[in-house]
Amino acid sequence: MKFDPLPSQCLVDQSLEIRLRGLAPGERVVLQLCNRFGHQVMQSEAHFVADASGTIDPARQSPVAGSYERADAMGLFWSRALVPPERIGGIAVLHDDPLTATLSAVRESDGSAVSVSIRRVYVGDGVRQREVRERGLVGRLFEPAGAGPHPAVLVLGGSNGGLAWSQEMAALLASHGFAALALAYFAAEGLPPTLDRIPLEYFGTALEWLAEQPGVRADRIGTVGVSRGGELALLLGAHFPAIGCVIGYVPSGIVWPAYPASGHGAWTLGGQEIAFASTLTHAQWDEAVAKGLAREDSFDWYLIPLRDPALVEQTAIRVENINGPVLLISGEADGLWPSTDLADFALQRLLEKRFPHRAEHLSYPRAGHSIAWPNAPTTMTRSVHAISGETMDMGGTPEGNARARSASWPRMLAFLRDALQR
Fold first, then answer.
1. Residues 218-237: pLDDT tens digits?
2. Which residues pair with 43 in a beta bridge?
3. Of 13, 201, 325, 404, whose CB is crowded by the most CB atoms within 10 A?
């Protein structure tokens, strides 16, 4: 038995055609995928029965058992989960490089096996990258191959701070033709330690710096943000006309307070805190539940304050001022905040204000807070927050998150190309 040829290296968002041939019809084989993850190991497996031609093709065949259930070309990739090293099955070869995974096929009849290694990277061929430590900025710039000038994107992570999420996203965007600046705005050297009273002027400086780079088209700059960075992306688009499009992953059309809570706002402009909505206190929440005004298993602590029209008008992001198209992406089973409701709020405001540009909201059932590029493991739906130390349920199911990632990614890239590469 042998695998059809696979690339030894490719981008993480690239789907692969995995086929195993040379089997007897009806023969049972276990496919396994394994890689290092820090000091731990991630592994997935799927049991297959060879078809009449002696072939196994995960894109058209459902496994009879294993880490996922339905036919899926990349099921082995997103269904990887943490396992103790002693539980690694088959002949998986662990490389020191966490980006390199071993794909193995093990015959159930006699344990014979074959394997191949695949390195999945974020930085494509020819992409250049450099640290940015100018004008008080902290970030990393990724530029596509070729002299350009290229359309550009300001990439903003969420409440984990630093360059978490943003540098991987920026690297992939550069690999698809965009100059992308991953920008830290707290929890990095020289920046505030938490998401607390961050000046919007900092991002204005970043936009000016980005526009001045020789490989960048100054008239083609967009912004992409996730979670609190999605809220920020909308806020920046509303305040800076240089931004020509906004993409918000699990965002909010309402401004929220500092995190962790400090009694202050997350953002300032001209030295003044931008008005923010506060979730209910524990006492207010208990009272609302007791009166039947809220369900204990809901996100009503976010939504009840928004039933006050005056508060809504005060804290709503003026998304109608954005100087270009807007794309919102959310998970209907988001476990951190009601991103679908909060994104719908922004979309409805755009419609009510007769927004002249394209506006779209992609929402996905059974998807949680972790929507981004495809083919990454989606099994870790709970995590410890890097800043607050809280254990957080990101929501969604592994399959639901994987489907949302694979469906939204090409639509996001097409949206960005249409907005900035015209």
1. 998 999 999 999 999 999 99
2. 34, 81
3. 404
- Whether the CB-CB separation of 303 and 285 falls below 8 Å is answered with no
The Cα 288–Cα 297 span in angstroms is: 13
The encoded tokens of residue 386 equal 């890097």
Structure tokens that stand for 278 in this block: 């506060």
pTM of the predicted model over 0.90: yes
- Give, in order, the Cα–Cα distances in Å from 44 to each of 24, 76, 85, 103, 329: 24, 6, 13, 10, 28
Q: Residue 1: what residue type?
A: M
Q: How many CA atoms lie within 13 A of 362 on its CB side?
A: 20
Q: What is the DSSP string of 273-340?
A: EPP---PPPHHHHHHHHHTTSS-TTSSHHHHGGGG-HHHHHHHB--GGG-SS-EEEEEETTBSSS-HH
The residue length of the chain stands at: 422
d(CA 393, CA 391): 7
Band the pLDDT of 287: cuts 50, 70, 90.
confident
Do the beta carbons of residue 119 and residue 9 sit within 8 Å? Answer: yes
Token look-up 């954005």 returns 322
